[in-house]
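Sequence only, no structure available. Ideas?
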Amino acid sequence: MSALKSILEENGLQNVLTYIQSGNIYLKTELEKKDLERQLQQIIKDHFHLDISCFVIEPTKLEQILQENPYCNGEEPNKVFITFLDAIPDSNLIADLKSIDYSPETFFINKDILYYHLPMGMAKSKYNNNFFEKKLKLKATGRNVNTVLKMHQLLK
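Reply:
I predicted one. C-alpha cells follow.
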C-alpha cells in the first residue's frame, strides 16, 4: 500500500492515507466523484496492471451508511458486511435475489448499498461480493462493519 500511496501523491492527490491491505484509501481532492474514480482506476491500471473498479465514498455518505445499517441490534460486527454497489440494482434482479433463501443469512438493499449478515461467518457463507455481483449484474466492493467503522474513525 505504500507504493500506491506514493504513486497517488505523485499524481497530485493530497493527504493520502491507506488503511490495511484491502485498498482502503483516504485522500483530499477537488475532483468530482466520478472523475476521481476514473483517475484512480487509470493510475492503478498504469502502475500495477490491474483493471479494478474503484469506489469513492464521501465522509457524509459513509456516516449515513453506518447510521442506516439494519444489522446493529447486537449482531457481531465482523459478521455484518456493508457492500458498495456501483449503481442502484434493477428491482427485478432484487426480487429474484430475494427468492433465494440461505437462512440464517440475510441481506438488505438500500439504494446502492447492500447490507448482509452472516451469523455463521464468512468461511461457509453463500453470500459474498462475487455472488451479489452476478445476481445483481453490478460491480461491488464490501467490508465488514469493523473495517467500515475504522475507516469512519480515521476520517475524524
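The first helix runs from residue 2 to 10.
Hope that gets you unstuck.
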